[in-house]
Give the backbone structure.
Amino acid sequence: MKIKKLSIITVLIMAVLSVSMLAGCEKENSKSKFPENKSTVISAKNSSQRSYDMDIEKFTEKFNEMYEDKTEKGGVALDSKDKPTGLTEENFTQIGEKNVKNGETTCNTYHHPTAKCEIILTVDNNTEKIISFAVATTGEVWEKSAKDVETVAVIGSIVCGGYEVEDFDFFKKLYESAISGNCFYDNILYKTSGTEKDNNSVIKLMSLPCSKESINKTSYTDYKKYLNKKCKFGEH
């Protein structure tokens, strides 16, 4: 009789725990797991069929606001001797070949130096909208200042995607997951080049709005499905 009562109690406890785990999973999915996109990804005529609904001026303004809010440093430093002054639209200069063919449009690439890395924006010449955001640095700097470079990359991606500073940790983890392969989330592909120890300035972190059709030959992880699977098996 005692064994039967214990079995009933055990079943009840397991049922309560299961409900609690499912509720926790649902809560995590609805709040911290899946940040709300502010619809900044729009259709475009470039090869990825998407762009950010944002030009360099708006990016600069939003980036400075969010960087100061997140780091409380007053803005990203432009070189090792500078005080943290933040980005300026004037410091974005065109690099590489001009008017590069990209799908049904052409684009130019602009870079902005900072103390630890370069911010690189590719812009549609016809609409002036940003096609991609990237951060480049050297292997030596990455080894010493990966956290600082990552902060610039995550904030830039959040700004382009129309997210909030509260979503920083979510996208930081997303980039960390992308180190072993591309991650696709909310119509945006997040890419990394790993952590090579060379002294050439190479792109380390990148976000690229795109349709799934345009990257059908690219290997990537659907980040939302990945998180749902982790949550399902209790690994969150």
In short: The radius of gyration is 21 Å. The first strand starts at residue 41 and ends at 43. Residues 2-33 form the longest helix (32 residues).
